[in-house]
């Protein structure tokens, strides 16, 4: 089964892909969040023969919904209305922090921005999310 992971953001959407047989996730790029986003995701899924989508749900550290959680749930609902592929939500707490560490190392980043050393990290966060999904589904 080919799976697409999505790290949703108001400006950028990170994509990662993997196969449930080998359980390896690969960053696959970043899309700009635009009015055409659902068409772009649909095209990607068609080209890559995606069977399932995993979307990261950004809960607060205490596990509560935040403003970003609500925005992500709205995105998931709209995505479901635009694509005929099963969608799974998965807690994504700290995936962006881990992605920053992968790109930036142990040094603390100067900002919380999703760009480190001139490189967006959204697709790396999506890859970490998919890796978590594979671990949960062992």
From TrEMBL:
Q: Where is the YqgF/RNase H-like domain?
A: 1-99
Enzyme Commission number(s): 3.1.-.-
Entry keywords, A to Z:
Cytoplasm, Hydrolase, Nuclease, Ribosome biogenesis
Q: Which Pfam families match?
A: RuvX
Where does it reside? Cytoplasm
* Gene3D superfamilies linked: YqgF/RNase H-like domain (3.30.420.140)
Q: EC top class, in one word?
A: hydrolase
Its primary localisation, in coarse terms, equals cytoplasm
Q: What does this protein do?
A: Could be a nuclease involved in processing of the 5'-end of pre-16S rRNA.
> In which family does this protein belong, per the annotation?
Belongs to the YqgF HJR family.
Protein name in the entry: Putative pre-16S rRNA nuclease
Q: Which organism is it from?
A: Candidatus Terrybacteria bacterium RIFCSPHIGHO2_01_FULL_43_35
Its taxonomic path starts at:
Bacteria, Candidatus Terryibacteriota
């Amino acid at each position: 089964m080919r799976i697409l992971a999505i790290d949703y953001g108001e400006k950028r959407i990170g994509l990662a892909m993997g196969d449930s047989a080998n359980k390896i996730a690969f960053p696959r790029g970043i899309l700009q969040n635009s009015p055409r986003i659902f068409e772009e995701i649909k095209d990607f899924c068609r080209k890559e023969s995606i069977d399932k989508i995993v979307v990261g749900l950004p809960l607060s550290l205490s596990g509560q919904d935040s403003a970003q959680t609500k925005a992500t749930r709205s995105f998931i609902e709209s995505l479901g209305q635009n694509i005929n592929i099963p969608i799974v939500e998965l807690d994504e707490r700290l995936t962006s922090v881990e992605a920053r560490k992968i790109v930036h190392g142990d040094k603390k980043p100067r900002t919380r921005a999703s760009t480190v050393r001139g490189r967006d990290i959204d697709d790396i966060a999506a890859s970490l999310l998919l890796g978590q999904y594979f671990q949960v589904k062992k």
